[in-house]
Design brief:
Helix content: 25-40%
CATH superfamily of the largest domain: NAD(P)-binding Rossmann-like Domain
CATH architecture of the largest domain: 3-Layer(aba) Sandwich
Number of helices: 12
Radius of gyration: 21 Å
Strand order of the largest sheet: 7-6-5-8-9-10-11-12
Order of helices and strands: HHEEHEEEHEHEHEHEHHEHHEEH
Bound molecules: NADP nicotinamide-adenine-dinucleotide phosphate
Shape: globular
Strand content: 5-15%
Number of domains: 2
Distance between the termini: 37 Å
């Protein structure tokens, strides 16, 4: 686990532009620090300057310095790229963190609501020591999202890729539950929390010196009614967005985006439609201006993850073999992690505005979204209402 001393060190990794004139290789506290892309070392010499910043970071949100690779031949060195993954404490997020850190080219910030669980998970899958940092983030609290952004900035780490992966799913809930700000919990966590996070971190991504700066929002087949899986009731449908406009509070507005009666499975699917619409709206508004690639994906049916934790036990027992042997849509957590890691880092998946999927032979392709999940007018409206709900307007 990182310490406040690490924080002090991390806060010495200052903004790239200030340091463009420094040499491309330097040593600090025994670490080799090297250029990140074209610009150079992120370091300043005076430890005392960082003290105030370091102590302001919450104890459960500490950060380690970004490491560098130093190949055995000692000839070339390379700074690791930096990627934030929300919900990296299990399932797809954890498997992606593993795939990225094992490549030796990435430092992963595990943005998780349960610090200890994330630390244990990282150790249980053997994430290489020093290749990751756990930072606290509860997407069901907009205050926590803002605090996370402050903590991340205080760490001094650059941001090359943001992966909005975390999600909750309440298929058997009879009654809605609500976030800190009083929004229905699945849309609050899966969409609104990520919407605020991505909007705030856009300027950090823009500063990335990487040629492959990316913002990825994990989508799902279940939100796409142009598929067999997306046609299993209850189907995703955002309607005229009257519930979302009303604040999804279940008091003077429906907890459902379309204004209907609460249905936990539908709320999840609707939130995934919002994820895919948001990715496209980001692409239209910011791709040309910033060079950031905005993408989404369906990683496959990862039937063993914690996503299904609140489903009935019989479902959890039968779902994996059903997907494996009947639909043949089953994807292991390891394989799904490799897929998302591809979207993070593979140069051939750098196109913006794409919803990626994979064939059975694990080759990627640009998938087609449903009519609703690609509706530009709806994307604009979801964007504008979400801005109001998260306080960005
Ligand atoms: N499993 C599938 O078949 C499948 C298919 C298509 C798409 N997906 C998508 O894949 C992504 C990952 O899901 P998964 O299957 O890997 O499920 P998972 O194992 O349950 O992982 C979800 C992660 O989200 C985190 N999380 C939940 N609420 C949070 C909050 N308020 N703040 C911060 N983190 C929170 C969880 O944290 P805790 O560990 O603390 O609970 C967990 O780390 C989701 O976007 C899901 O929609 C999954």
């Amino acid at each position: 686990m990182a310490t406040l001393a690490n924080c002090a060190a991390a806060s010495h990794l200052v903004a790239k532009e200030k340091l463009a004139s420094l040499s491309t290789e330097s040593t600090f506290l025994g670490l080799q620090l090297h250029g990140h892309g074209q610009n150079a070392v992120r370091m300043i010499n005076k430890v005392s300057k960082s003290h105030a910043i370091a102590t302001s970071i919450r104890a459960n949100a500490v950060a380690a310095p970004v490491e560098t690779l130093k190949p055995a031949d000692g000839k070339k060195t390379m700074t690791k790229s930096s990627c934030i993954i929300t919900g990296a404490s299990s399932g797809l997020g954890l498997a992606t963190a593993k795939a990225l850190t094992e490549s030796g080219e990435w430092h992963v910030v595990m943005a998780c609501r349960d610090f200890l669980k994330a630390e244990k998970a990282a150790k249980s899958v053997g994430l290489p020591k020093g290749s990751y940092t756990v930072m606290h983030l509860d997407l069901a609290s907009l205050e926590s999202v803002r605090q996370f952004v402050t903590n991340f900035r205080n760490s001094g780490m650059p941001l090359d890729v943001l992966v909005c992966n975390a999600a909750v799913y309440f298929p058997t809930a009879k009654e809605p539950t609500f976030s800190a700000e009083g929004f229905e919990l699945s849309v609050a966590t899966n969409h609104l929390g990520h919407f605020l996070l991505a909007r705030l971190l856009l300027e950090d991504l823009e500063k990335s010196q990487s040629k492959a700066k990316r913002l990825i929002i994990v989508g799902s087949i279940t939100g796409n009614t142009n598929t067999l899986a997306g046609n299993i009731p209850p189907k995703a449908n955002l309607g005229d967005l009257r519930g979302l406009s009303g604040g999804l509070n279940g008091v003077n507005a429906s907890p459902m985006i379309d204004g209907g009666a609460f249905d936990g499975a539908k709320a999840y699917k609707d939130s995934k439609v919002c994820n895919m619409l948001t990715m496209q709206e980001f692409h239209r508004r910011y791709h040309e201006k910033t060079g950031i690639a905005f993408t989404s994906l369906y990683p496959g049916c990862i039937a063993t993850t914690g996503l299904f934790r609140s489903h009935i036990p019989l479902f959890r027992t039968l779902f994996p073999p059903f997907q494996k042997y009947i639909t043949k849509g089953f994807v292991s957590e390891e394989e799904s992690g490799k897929r998302l890691a591809q979207v993070v880092s593979d140069p051939s998946l750098s196109k913006s505005g794409v919803y990626w999927s994979w064939n059975n032979d694990s080759s990627s392709f640009e998938n087609v979204l449903s009519e609703e999940a690609s509706n530009q007018d709806k994307a604009k409206k979801v964007w504008e209402i979400s801005e109001k709900l998260v306080g960005l307007e």
